[in-house]
Each structure stands twice: as C-alpha cells, then as structure tokens.
Amino acid sequence: MQEDSPVQNENTPDTAPAGRPQRPGRRNRLIVLGAAALVALGLGGVAVATAGTDHPAPATVSLDAQSRAEAADRADRSVRESSTPVTPAASPTPSPSTVSASPTPAKTATAKAKPKPKKTTRPTPAWVDPMPGAAVTSCYGQRWGTLHAGIDLALPSGTPIRAAAAGTVTQAGDASDGYGNSVFIDHGNGYLTHYAHQSRIAVTVGQKVKAGQVIGYEGATGDATGPHLHFEVHQGMWNQIDPAPFMRARGVDLGC
C-alpha cells in the first residue's frame, strides 16, 4: 500500500524534513518585498535631497516669471513713451507766391495814425490886466478940481496885484503924497507903471519881474477911502498919462 505524499500549501512552513531541500517560493517572495521596500526608501531620500538643494524652478515657474518680466517691461516702456515731450511740427514756410503784397495791419495802422499834437503853453501876453475882474471906481482925469492921474480898480482887500508887463522894480515902499505902499516898475521902453495903496508888497528894488507876476496885495494905505488899486502909467518918471488908451493899444481893456 502506497503512502500519500504530504501536500504543501501556503500555510505550510518552508522547512522541509531532514534530507529534503527547501522550496524557494516563499523566500523569493520575501526577498522581492524587501527589495521593493528598499527601493521605495531610496526614492524618498532622493526626493528629500532634491528638495533641499538649489535647482532651477520648474518650467511652469520659469514661464510665469518671464511673463511677469515682459509685462513690467511693457508698462515701463509705455510710461517712458508717454513722458517723452512731443515736438510740434514746424509750420511750413509760405512760398513767395502765397505771400500777400498788401501791407500788414500793424503797418497800415501805423501809416494811418496821425501824429499827436504837441502840448504847448500859451505864451503870456506882453501886457496884462494888473487886477483881472476888478470893478472900475474912477478913471483918469479931473476930479474935485485936481487931476486924478490913474485908474482905480476895486476888489476885496488882499487880492493879488500883478505886474502889467516885464521889467525891473525901481521903487518898493511908501511913495508919500498919499500913495501909501507903492511899487514902480521900469519896462525899459521909456514907460513905467505905478501900483499904489497896497496892503503888502511882495517884491524888492532891483528885482526882475515878468508880466502877470504877483508884486503885492490890494489895500487902503495912504489917502484911500477903501481897498483898491490905484494904477498909473508914466512916460518918464512922474509924467503920468492916461492908462486906458495906452493899455488898450496893447490888448488890455481896463474899462475906462
């Protein structure tokens, strides 16, 4: 009778009875699993070592950085272009054929402008009224049996008295004979003028005066019944003549 050989399954230990070689199946599997574990451990170490070293970033990172750099460069270039001053184009020079032959408005205005008249001061007449606006109270001629040798002109006391013409003051002060404060002016042509009864004299002997210059102020000094100017014209000293026609011939109407 033949004995049944024992059947080995997965739960059968790898050990064989003495004198029988062991089977390599389970051992080989263990070796393969160990090798796989070692390989896995090695790959993990490589990954850790790789992460700890400085290597170029992945291609996707490089592309992203390049895109940002290009965008920044475009923005910087746009700022520079916008800040660059734009030089306006020079206007074309008109050709000789297009230039108008008529004068420019400025030249036309200058040509039409009339010269402004120069301001001139009206020259003072050679002879003037010694007290303009005065009322005549007495003319030259006989009065109360004696000669009244001049013309009396009346305005309020203190009215300025003016030289009838240019000349040199020969007397200034009390002239006696009832004339009171008087001024005599020699006009250098053989004629003198006499201004009597002044309240105050404004010139001195030897002073040069002009026609119309103030020589004193109206008063009532000497023999006078009230403030007035007694005005005489002398042809030579103390040779009184009628002042009315003399002054009228020189453009001054004294009202007599």
Question: Could you describe the 3D structure shown?
Answer:
The chain is 26% helix and 22% strand. The strands form 3 sheets. Strands 1, 4, 6, 7, 8, 10, 12 and 13 form an 8-stranded antiparallel beta sheet that branches. The chain has a 3-stranded antiparallel beta sheet with strand order 5-11-9, with no helix packed on it. Strands 2-3 form a two-stranded antiparallel sheet. It has 256 residues and is an alpha+beta fold. Strand 7 and strand 8 form a beta hairpin. It has 4 helices and 13 strands.
Q: Which key features would you list for this structure?
A:
256 residues, alpha+beta, 8-stranded antiparallel beta sheet, 3-stranded antiparallel beta sheet
Task: Give a summary of the structure in a few sentences.
The protein is of the alpha+beta class. It has helices spanning 25-52, 59-83, 105-112, 243-248, and strands at 135-138, 141-143, 146-148, 151-154, 160-162, 167-174, 181-186, 191-196, 198-201, 208-209, 214-218, 229-235, 240-241. A hairpin with a 4-residue loop joins strand 12 (229-235) and strand 13.
Question: Main beta sheet, described?
Answer: 8 strands, antiparallel
Radius of gyration: 69 Å
Distance between the termini: 205 Å
Helix content: 25-40%
Structural class: alpha+beta
Number of strands: 13
Q: What fraction strand?
A: 15-25%
Q: Total number of helical segments?
A: 4
